[in-house]
Amino acid sequence: MENKRPTVYEECRQKGISRRDFLKFCTTMAALMGLESSGVAQVVNALETKPRLPVIWLHLQECTCCTESFIRAAHPIVATLLLDKISLDYTETLMAAAGEQAEAAKEETMKKYYGEYLLMIEGSIPTKDEGYCCVGGKSALQITEEAAKGAKAIIAWGNCACAGCVQAANPNPTGAKAIHKVIKGKPIINVQGCPPIADVMAGVIIYMLTFERMPQLDGLGRPKMFYSRRVHDSCYRRANFDAGLFVESFDDENAKHGYCLYKVGCKGPSTYNSCGIIKWNEGTSYPIQSGHPCLGCSEENFWDNSPFYKRMPDVHGFGIEATADQIGLALGTATAAGIAVHAVATNIRKKKLIDNEEPESTSNI
Ligand code: SF4
Ligand code: SF3
Ligand code: F3S
Protein backbone atom coordinates (compact mmCIF):
# COMPACT_ATOMS: atom_id res chain seq x y z
CA MET A 1 0.00 0.00 0.00
CA GLU A 2 1.42 3.34 -1.09
CA ASN A 3 2.21 5.75 1.75
CA LYS A 4 0.18 8.90 1.52
CA ARG A 5 2.59 11.24 -0.15
CA PRO A 6 1.96 14.98 -0.41
CA THR A 7 0.78 16.22 -3.78
CA VAL A 8 2.96 18.50 -5.86
CA TYR A 9 0.78 21.44 -4.89
CA GLU A 10 0.98 20.60 -1.18
CA GLU A 11 4.73 20.45 -1.45
CA CYS A 12 4.74 23.80 -3.26
CA ARG A 13 2.78 25.37 -0.46
CA GLN A 14 5.13 23.89 2.11
CA LYS A 15 7.97 25.51 0.20
CA GLY A 16 6.27 28.88 0.48
CA ILE A 17 5.20 29.05 -3.18
CA SER A 18 2.00 31.09 -3.43
CA ARG A 19 -1.14 29.84 -5.14
CA ARG A 20 -0.73 32.62 -7.64
CA ASP A 21 2.81 31.55 -8.57
CA PHE A 22 1.70 27.94 -8.71
CA LEU A 23 -1.07 28.81 -11.17
CA LYS A 24 1.30 30.95 -13.18
CA PHE A 25 3.65 28.03 -13.42
CA CYS A 26 0.88 25.69 -14.59
CA THR A 27 -0.19 28.21 -17.24
CA THR A 28 3.37 28.61 -18.49
CA MET A 29 3.85 24.87 -18.70
CA ALA A 30 0.56 24.34 -20.52
CA ALA A 31 1.48 27.09 -22.98
CA LEU A 32 4.90 25.55 -23.62
CA MET A 33 3.26 22.22 -24.29
CA GLY A 34 0.94 23.94 -26.74
CA LEU A 35 -2.19 22.90 -24.82
CA GLU A 36 -5.56 24.56 -25.25
CA SER A 37 -6.87 26.59 -22.34
CA SER A 38 -8.61 23.49 -20.98
CA GLY A 39 -5.13 21.99 -20.73
CA VAL A 40 -4.22 24.47 -18.03
CA ALA A 41 -6.96 23.05 -15.82
CA GLN A 42 -5.64 19.55 -16.45
CA VAL A 43 -2.14 20.55 -15.43
CA VAL A 44 -3.45 22.33 -12.32
CA ASN A 45 -5.60 19.37 -11.41
CA ALA A 46 -2.74 16.91 -11.86
CA LEU A 47 -0.31 18.87 -9.74
CA GLU A 48 -2.97 19.44 -7.09
CA THR A 49 -3.91 15.81 -6.78
CA LYS A 50 -0.82 13.79 -7.62
CA PRO A 51 2.36 13.28 -5.68
CA ARG A 52 5.71 13.94 -7.26
CA LEU A 53 7.21 11.36 -9.57
CA PRO A 54 9.99 9.22 -8.22
CA VAL A 55 13.06 9.70 -10.38
CA ILE A 56 16.41 8.07 -10.90
CA TRP A 57 18.75 10.25 -12.94
CA LEU A 58 21.81 8.42 -14.22
CA HIS A 59 25.00 10.07 -15.39
CA LEU A 60 26.87 8.06 -17.95
CA GLN A 61 29.37 9.28 -20.57
CA GLU A 62 28.67 13.02 -20.66
CA CYS A 63 29.63 16.50 -19.58
CA THR A 64 26.66 17.27 -17.26
CA CYS A 65 25.42 20.04 -19.53
CA CYS A 66 21.85 18.71 -19.36
CA THR A 67 21.82 18.96 -15.57
CA GLU A 68 23.34 22.43 -15.86
CA SER A 69 20.61 23.43 -18.27
CA PHE A 70 17.85 21.93 -16.15
CA ILE A 71 18.80 23.66 -12.92
CA ARG A 72 18.72 26.98 -14.76
CA ALA A 73 15.15 26.53 -15.93
CA ALA A 74 13.54 29.74 -17.13
CA HIS A 75 10.51 30.06 -14.88
CA PRO A 76 11.70 31.07 -11.40
CA ILE A 77 9.90 28.21 -9.71
CA VAL A 78 10.60 25.51 -12.27
CA ALA A 79 13.89 24.53 -10.75
CA THR A 80 12.60 24.61 -7.20
CA LEU A 81 9.41 22.89 -8.07
CA LEU A 82 10.86 20.21 -10.26
CA LEU A 83 14.05 19.55 -8.42
CA ASP A 84 12.12 19.12 -5.20
CA LYS A 85 8.91 17.81 -6.57
CA ILE A 86 10.01 15.25 -9.06
CA SER A 87 12.39 14.31 -6.30
CA LEU A 88 15.68 13.32 -7.65
CA ASP A 89 15.77 10.17 -5.60
CA TYR A 90 19.08 9.39 -7.18
CA THR A 91 21.35 11.70 -9.13
CA GLU A 92 25.08 11.71 -8.62
CA THR A 93 25.42 15.38 -9.43
CA LEU A 94 22.76 16.92 -7.22
CA MET A 95 22.15 14.52 -4.36
CA ALA A 96 23.87 15.08 -1.05
CA ALA A 97 24.76 11.43 -0.57
CA ALA A 98 27.92 9.92 -2.04
CA GLY A 99 29.55 6.51 -2.41
CA GLU A 100 27.76 3.57 -0.81
CA GLN A 101 25.06 5.80 0.61
CA ALA A 102 24.21 6.99 -2.88
CA GLU A 103 24.13 3.45 -4.24
CA ALA A 104 21.84 2.45 -1.37
CA ALA A 105 19.46 5.34 -2.20
CA LYS A 106 19.26 4.12 -5.78
CA GLU A 107 18.61 0.51 -4.75
CA GLU A 108 15.90 1.66 -2.39
CA THR A 109 14.17 3.78 -5.05
CA MET A 110 14.33 0.92 -7.54
CA LYS A 111 12.72 -1.42 -5.02
CA LYS A 112 10.19 0.91 -3.44
CA TYR A 113 8.94 2.39 -6.70
CA TYR A 114 9.36 -0.63 -8.95
CA GLY A 115 7.34 -0.06 -12.12
CA GLU A 116 6.63 3.54 -11.14
CA TYR A 117 9.81 5.56 -11.33
CA LEU A 118 11.00 7.56 -14.30
CA LEU A 119 14.50 6.73 -15.36
CA MET A 120 16.25 9.81 -16.67
CA ILE A 121 19.56 9.24 -18.36
CA GLU A 122 22.19 11.78 -19.24
CA GLY A 123 25.07 10.44 -21.30
CA SER A 124 25.84 7.66 -23.72
CA ILE A 125 26.75 4.05 -23.03
CA PRO A 126 30.32 3.06 -23.86
CA THR A 127 30.27 -0.41 -25.38
CA LYS A 128 33.90 -0.92 -26.36
CA ASP A 129 35.30 -1.63 -22.94
CA GLU A 130 33.46 -2.31 -19.69
CA GLY A 131 36.05 -0.26 -17.85
CA TYR A 132 34.87 3.02 -19.31
CA CYS A 133 32.40 4.90 -17.16
CA CYS A 134 32.21 2.52 -14.19
CA VAL A 135 30.23 3.59 -11.13
CA GLY A 136 30.28 1.54 -7.93
CA GLY A 137 32.15 -1.25 -9.74
CA LYS A 138 29.47 -1.62 -12.40
CA SER A 139 29.71 -0.79 -16.07
CA ALA A 140 27.46 1.85 -17.60
CA LEU A 141 25.62 -0.89 -19.46
CA GLN A 142 24.99 -2.92 -16.29
CA ILE A 143 23.84 0.17 -14.40
CA THR A 144 21.44 1.15 -17.17
CA GLU A 145 20.01 -2.32 -17.64
CA GLU A 146 19.41 -2.71 -13.91
CA ALA A 147 17.72 0.66 -13.58
CA ALA A 148 15.69 0.23 -16.77
CA LYS A 149 14.06 -2.98 -15.54
CA GLY A 150 11.67 -1.36 -13.07
CA ALA A 151 11.30 1.97 -14.86
CA LYS A 152 7.89 3.13 -16.02
CA ALA A 153 9.55 5.00 -18.87
CA ILE A 154 12.95 6.33 -19.80
CA ILE A 155 13.75 9.92 -20.60
CA ALA A 156 17.00 10.28 -22.52
CA TRP A 157 18.33 13.76 -21.86
CA GLY A 158 20.39 15.46 -24.49
CA ASN A 159 22.22 14.40 -27.58
CA CYS A 160 24.53 12.09 -25.58
CA ALA A 161 21.72 9.84 -24.42
CA CYS A 162 19.64 10.30 -27.58
CA ALA A 163 22.35 9.88 -30.20
CA GLY A 164 25.82 9.64 -28.64
CA CYS A 165 26.80 13.30 -29.11
CA VAL A 166 30.49 14.19 -29.07
CA GLN A 167 31.64 10.85 -27.65
CA ALA A 168 30.15 9.04 -30.60
CA ALA A 169 31.84 11.39 -33.09
CA ASN A 170 34.17 9.67 -35.50
CA PRO A 171 36.20 7.58 -34.60
CA ASN A 172 34.04 6.97 -31.52
CA PRO A 173 36.87 5.53 -29.40
CA THR A 174 34.63 4.24 -26.60
CA GLY A 175 31.96 2.70 -28.85
CA ALA A 176 29.47 5.22 -27.41
CA LYS A 177 25.85 4.35 -28.09
CA ALA A 178 22.54 6.07 -27.54
CA ILE A 179 20.21 4.59 -24.91
CA HIS A 180 17.58 3.47 -27.43
CA LYS A 181 20.23 1.50 -29.29
CA VAL A 182 20.96 -0.58 -26.23
CA ILE A 183 17.80 -0.74 -24.12
CA LYS A 184 14.83 -2.40 -25.77
CA GLY A 185 11.25 -2.98 -24.68
CA LYS A 186 10.82 0.24 -22.68
CA PRO A 187 9.17 3.47 -23.76
CA ILE A 188 11.96 5.99 -24.37
CA ILE A 189 11.59 9.72 -24.97
CA ASN A 190 14.51 11.45 -26.65
CA VAL A 191 14.71 15.00 -25.36
CA GLN A 192 17.27 16.25 -27.83
CA GLY A 193 19.77 19.08 -27.77
CA CYS A 194 23.27 19.63 -26.48
CA PRO A 195 21.92 20.36 -23.99
CA PRO A 196 18.13 20.38 -24.25
CA ILE A 197 16.29 23.60 -23.34
CA ALA A 198 15.43 23.63 -19.63
CA ASP A 199 11.78 24.48 -20.23
CA VAL A 200 11.48 21.66 -22.71
CA MET A 201 12.85 19.27 -20.08
CA ALA A 202 10.38 20.62 -17.53
CA GLY A 203 7.54 20.45 -20.04
CA VAL A 204 8.18 16.77 -20.75
CA ILE A 205 8.15 15.90 -17.05
CA ILE A 206 4.98 17.88 -16.38
CA TYR A 207 3.35 16.24 -19.40
CA MET A 208 4.15 12.78 -18.05
CA LEU A 209 2.83 13.71 -14.61
CA THR A 210 -0.34 15.30 -15.98
CA PHE A 211 -1.38 12.83 -18.64
CA GLU A 212 0.33 9.65 -17.42
CA ARG A 213 1.22 8.68 -20.94
CA MET A 214 3.98 9.17 -23.45
CA PRO A 215 3.84 12.35 -25.49
CA GLN A 216 3.57 11.95 -29.25
CA LEU A 217 7.02 11.32 -30.66
CA ASP A 218 8.55 11.88 -34.07
CA GLY A 219 10.54 9.27 -35.96
CA LEU A 220 13.62 10.06 -33.89
CA GLY A 221 11.76 9.61 -30.61
CA ARG A 222 11.51 13.34 -29.86
CA PRO A 223 8.31 14.83 -28.39
CA LYS A 224 6.52 16.49 -31.28
CA MET A 225 5.23 19.29 -29.11
CA PHE A 226 8.79 20.64 -28.90
CA TYR A 227 10.50 19.24 -31.98
CA SER A 228 8.06 19.50 -34.85
CA ARG A 229 9.38 22.77 -36.24
CA ARG A 230 12.70 23.60 -37.78
CA VAL A 231 14.85 26.26 -36.17
CA HIS A 232 14.73 27.89 -39.60
CA ASP A 233 10.92 28.15 -39.48
CA SER A 234 10.84 30.28 -36.34
CA CYS A 235 14.03 32.20 -37.02
CA TYR A 236 13.73 35.96 -36.78
CA ARG A 237 16.48 36.20 -39.47
CA ARG A 238 14.35 34.25 -41.88
CA ALA A 239 13.29 37.34 -43.79
CA ASN A 240 16.97 37.90 -44.59
CA PHE A 241 17.30 34.35 -45.86
CA ASP A 242 14.28 34.83 -48.05
CA ALA A 243 15.64 38.14 -49.32
CA GLY A 244 19.07 36.68 -50.05
CA LEU A 245 20.87 38.71 -47.38
CA PHE A 246 23.67 36.63 -45.90
CA VAL A 247 26.57 37.02 -43.49
CA GLU A 248 29.67 36.09 -45.50
CA SER A 249 32.11 36.16 -42.58
CA PHE A 250 31.65 36.78 -38.88
CA ASP A 251 33.25 40.21 -38.91
CA ASP A 252 31.59 41.68 -41.95
CA GLU A 253 29.02 44.44 -42.15
CA ASN A 254 26.29 41.92 -42.90
CA ALA A 255 26.94 40.27 -39.54
CA LYS A 256 26.43 43.64 -37.87
CA HIS A 257 23.15 44.00 -39.72
CA GLY A 258 21.99 40.65 -38.40
CA TYR A 259 21.67 38.97 -41.78
CA CYS A 260 21.10 35.24 -42.24
CA LEU A 261 23.88 32.92 -41.02
CA TYR A 262 23.31 30.18 -43.57
CA LYS A 263 26.57 30.76 -45.44
CA VAL A 264 28.64 30.64 -42.25
CA GLY A 265 27.30 27.23 -41.39
CA CYS A 266 23.81 27.63 -39.96
CA LYS A 267 22.09 24.24 -39.76
CA GLY A 268 18.73 25.77 -38.86
CA PRO A 269 17.15 24.56 -42.11
CA SER A 270 17.73 20.91 -41.15
CA THR A 271 17.32 21.16 -37.38
CA TYR A 272 14.17 20.53 -35.36
CA ASN A 273 14.06 22.32 -32.00
CA SER A 274 12.20 25.10 -30.15
CA CYS A 275 15.13 27.47 -29.69
CA GLY A 276 13.62 30.30 -31.70
CA ILE A 277 10.36 30.10 -29.78
CA ILE A 278 11.23 29.24 -26.19
CA LYS A 279 14.84 30.45 -26.20
CA TRP A 280 17.29 30.12 -23.33
CA ASN A 281 18.04 31.90 -20.08
CA GLU A 282 14.55 33.00 -19.25
CA GLY A 283 13.69 33.56 -22.88
CA THR A 284 16.61 35.94 -23.34
CA SER A 285 18.36 34.60 -26.39
CA TYR A 286 19.55 31.59 -28.36
CA PRO A 287 22.62 30.87 -30.50
CA ILE A 288 21.37 32.60 -33.66
CA GLN A 289 20.30 35.67 -31.71
CA SER A 290 23.84 35.84 -30.34
CA GLY A 291 25.22 35.87 -33.87
CA HIS A 292 26.20 32.21 -33.95
CA PRO A 293 24.90 29.73 -36.50
CA CYS A 294 22.79 26.84 -35.30
CA LEU A 295 25.04 23.78 -35.08
CA GLY A 296 22.14 21.38 -35.34
CA CYS A 297 22.63 20.13 -31.80
CA SER A 298 19.26 18.40 -31.59
CA GLU A 299 19.99 16.17 -34.57
CA GLU A 300 21.77 12.83 -34.76
CA ASN A 301 25.50 12.88 -35.64
CA PHE A 302 25.66 16.64 -35.57
CA TRP A 303 29.39 16.55 -34.79
CA ASP A 304 30.09 14.61 -37.96
CA ASN A 305 27.38 15.77 -40.31
CA SER A 306 29.43 18.65 -41.70
CA PRO A 307 31.94 21.26 -40.51
CA PHE A 308 30.28 23.65 -38.08
CA TYR A 309 31.21 26.87 -39.87
CA LYS A 310 30.78 25.78 -43.45
CA ARG A 311 27.44 26.01 -45.13
CA MET A 312 25.58 22.76 -45.27
CA PRO A 313 26.87 20.44 -47.95
CA ASP A 314 24.43 18.61 -50.11
CA VAL A 315 22.43 17.21 -47.23
CA HIS A 316 20.12 14.62 -48.67
CA GLY A 317 16.69 16.05 -49.16
CA PHE A 318 17.68 19.70 -49.10
CA GLY A 319 17.95 21.84 -52.16
CA ILE A 320 18.97 25.24 -50.86
CA GLU A 321 22.77 25.14 -51.13
CA ALA A 322 23.06 26.25 -54.70
CA THR A 323 20.24 28.66 -54.20
CA ALA A 324 22.00 30.63 -51.48
CA ASP A 325 24.42 32.01 -54.09
CA GLN A 326 21.81 32.62 -56.69
CA ILE A 327 19.61 34.45 -54.24
CA GLY A 328 22.28 37.08 -53.69
CA LEU A 329 22.83 37.51 -57.41
CA ALA A 330 19.36 37.52 -58.76
CA LEU A 331 16.29 37.77 -56.68
CA GLY A 332 13.19 36.51 -58.31
CA THR A 333 12.60 33.18 -59.97
CA ALA A 334 15.78 31.58 -58.67
CA THR A 335 14.90 32.55 -55.15
CA ALA A 336 11.32 31.50 -55.43
CA ALA A 337 12.30 28.18 -56.99
CA GLY A 338 14.97 27.59 -54.37
CA ILE A 339 12.62 28.25 -51.53
CA ALA A 340 9.97 26.08 -53.09
CA VAL A 341 12.45 23.20 -53.47
CA HIS A 342 13.59 23.81 -49.94
CA ALA A 343 10.08 23.76 -48.56
CA VAL A 344 9.09 20.66 -50.47
CA ALA A 345 12.24 18.76 -49.53
CA THR A 346 11.78 19.63 -45.88
CA ASN A 347 8.19 18.59 -45.88
CA ILE A 348 9.06 15.28 -47.46
CA ARG A 349 11.67 14.67 -44.80
CA LYS A 350 9.32 15.66 -42.02
CA LYS A 351 6.57 13.51 -43.47
CA LYS A 352 8.94 10.55 -43.38
CA LEU A 353 9.72 11.24 -39.75
CA ILE A 354 6.05 11.39 -38.89
CA ASP A 355 5.29 8.25 -40.86
CA ASN A 356 8.05 6.43 -39.05
CA GLU A 357 6.63 7.34 -35.71
CA GLU A 358 6.63 4.35 -33.45
CA PRO A 359 3.19 3.09 -32.51
CA GLU A 360 3.90 2.99 -28.79
CA SER A 361 4.74 6.68 -28.80
CA THR A 362 1.31 7.72 -27.60
CA SER A 363 0.62 4.75 -25.41
CA ASN A 364 -0.11 4.93 -21.76
CA ILE A 365 2.79 4.15 -19.52
FE1 SF4 B 1 17.94 31.65 -39.37
FE2 SF4 B 1 19.86 29.97 -39.94
FE3 SF4 B 1 17.60 29.86 -41.32
FE4 SF4 B 1 19.30 31.87 -41.66
S1 SF4 B 1 19.67 29.71 -42.14
S2 SF4 B 1 17.11 32.03 -41.42
S3 SF4 B 1 20.10 32.17 -39.58
S4 SF4 B 1 17.85 29.43 -39.15
FE1 SF3 C 1 25.91 15.58 -23.70
FE2 SF3 C 1 26.08 16.98 -25.77
FE3 SF3 C 1 26.83 17.53 -22.49
FE4 SF3 C 1 24.03 16.53 -21.41
S1 SF3 C 1 24.32 16.40 -24.80
S2 SF3 C 1 25.85 15.92 -21.53
S3 SF3 C 1 27.67 16.79 -24.33
FE1 F3S D 1 21.17 23.77 -30.73
FE2 F3S D 1 20.68 25.08 -32.93
FE3 F3S D 1 19.21 25.47 -30.87
S1 F3S D 1 22.68 24.63 -32.06
S2 F3S D 1 20.60 25.23 -29.18
S3 F3S D 1 19.39 23.57 -32.00
S4 F3S D 1 19.83 26.99 -32.31
TrEMBL record:
Compartments it resides in: Cell membrane
Domain annotation NADH:ubiquinone oxidoreductase-like 20kDa subunit: ranges: 63-207
Main location: membrane
EC number from the UniProt entry: 1.12.99.6
Any one GO molecular function term: hydrogenase (acceptor) activity
Entry keywords, A to Z: 4Fe-4S, Cell membrane, Iron, Iron-sulfur, Membrane, Metal-binding, Oxidoreductase, Signal
Residues covered by the Cytochrome-c3 hydrogenase C-terminal domain: 227-309
SUPFAM superfamilies according to UniProt: HydA/Nqo6-like
UniProt key word NAD: no
Entries under Gene3D superfamilies matching the protein: Cytochrome-c3 hydrogenase, C-terminal domain, NADH:ubiquinone oxidoreductase-like, 20kDa subunit
Requisite cofactors: [4Fe-4S] cluster
Keyword Membrane applies: yes
PANTHER family: HYDROGENASE-1 SMALL CHAIN, NIFE / NIFESE HYDROGENASE SMALL SUBUNIT FAMILY MEMBER
NCBIfam families in alphabetical order: hydA, TAT_signal_seq
Subunit text: Heterodimer of a large and a small subunit.
Family: Belongs to the [NiFe]/[NiFeSe] hydrogenase small subunit family.
Protein name: Hydrogenase small subunit
Source organism: Parabacteroides faecis
